[in-house]
Design a protein that fits this description.
146 residues; globular; alpha+beta; 7 helices
């Protein structure tokens, strides 16, 4: 499920983003499959990590505790400006996020995108200036839709 800048765009606020932020189900099998799917389209992890390591909950917890890792970054060797950040820990409760998510057609292909409310919560938690600007614009969009 897409979160971050692409989700902001999918919800109607057009702005530049250089990466795709995604949340995947982190059970062992799905985490491994997601890792391998990203590799299959040419992306490689920015740090030397194997699918089995990403799929292991204890290993991810170690990354969070020891390295303060929030996402695992994948880069496209032919174009380092293209990247995918996969959350190593859910930013919100996954099942609710997934249930509340929507399938958007605005990103050229049907894409599962977190809800505008969840996106606002995630961006408020991040608290960076660009996230707070996104929140301001997403709140306007949410009010216009209501």
């Amino acid at each position: 499920m897409v979160v971050g800048g692409l989700a902001t765009i999918a919800h109607g606020f057009i702005r530049f983003t250089s990466d795709a932020d995604v949340v995947v189900a982190l059970d062992t099998e799905n985490a491994r499959k997601a890792f391998e799917a990203i590799l299959s389209v040419g992306f490689v992890p920015a740090v030397p990590v194997r699918a089995e390591e990403f799929a292991d909950a204890a290993t991810r917890e170690g990354w969070i505790a020891e390295k303060n890792m929030m996402v695992l970054n994948f880069r496209l060797p032919s174009d380092p400006m293209q990247s995918v950040d996969v959350f190593v820990k859910y930013p919100l409760e996954f099942e609710k996020m997934y249930t509340d998510s929507v399938v958007s057609e605005s990103l050229e292909v049907p894409t599962r995108v977190c809800s505008i409310d969840d996106l606002i919560r995630i961006k408020l938690e991040a608290g960076r200036p660009k996230d707070l600007e996104d929140v301001r614009n997403l709140e306007i969009i949410r009010e216009d839709r209501a």
